Amino acid sequence: MRLADFIEAHPQRILDDAVEFAITQAPDGAQLSVKRLRNDIPLILREIVADLRSPQSPAQQRAKAHGRAPASTGPESAASSHGRSRADDGFGVNQMIAEYRALRASVLRLWAAQEALAAGSIDDMIRFNEAIDQAVAESLLEFSRTVESWRNVFLGALGHDLRGPLTAVVGTAEFLVDRTKDTPNARLAERILSGGLQLSRLVDGLLDYSKSTLGAGMTLQRSACDLGQAVAEEVELLRATLHDAPIRLQVDGDTCGHFDDARLREAVHNLVTNAAKYGEAGAEIGVTVTGDGDHACIEVSNAGDPLCTEALNALFDPLRRGSRAANQGEHTSLGLGLFIVREIASAHGGDVRAKVDEGRTVFAIMLPRGADVPRTRRHARTAYA
Hints:
disordered C terminus
């Protein structure tokens, strides 16, 4: 009897044996859901039988053996549904893989015990293992997507719940700073305020990250503004806090447009502080704003040991940090600064790139001007020491 016929002829026997085997082979501490197994295994087996009876080319065979069969354009597969339900139920990936091991072992053991090897048996076993491998790949993909989604929901909820208490802390700290000015406690009040503001930035970063990864995107408040002026104001604030990092600002051309200047100031803040942390200690940080045609560009550059372009652009991925140790304290970074820069640029319809130019690391944000707004043509170059 061919394997597909055997599976169809003995569904209950295979199901009972697979469930029993899964229970005995489950990882320590795992709580297998027998009801879930009995619901999902017949559906997965039905798809495997259909696969065994379908023609297959050598190229399709190789792809499926590696779990790379083309994605189905029809309804969701039973394996994908099983992977998502396992993640929703809070099970671990090792437990889910154990279930497939149980199913594979049960089917082959029962078939071998009842049927003598005949023509086509070896091919059936190969095809069956390929189908199981593909089902595992589909389950893992959906399992990972679901776990990632729940993680992002958790981060968003955490950021939201922390924002209220932090607002109270920062407000109280600002009050204390005003009341303790020119007193022995002034420094302590300023330290509390600084810590509260730093935590607020971390929480805002978590909220931006969770919104972006959950598909909500970043909300912009666009208005007609002069980007060069907005960046100049942010640089002045940065100079007041980054005493050991000289910052040179240069504005060239028409930098007026339709932007969310607050968000772009945040992007400049992230890039400059990142340059101060990972660039050469005490070296000048360059900030350039240029306007040309329908676009404006912000560049932040610093000296230091250069990374390759591929490694630099990978830093825009969330929860990534530079491979070099920071030359300043970096104990509270979540690795979201450059990710947020990318999301701000993307929300404006632009992009951000990193490169190494003449020994300096350069991060460049290219922005379309947006809606047509009155512009003051400035072709003279303005340099700020």
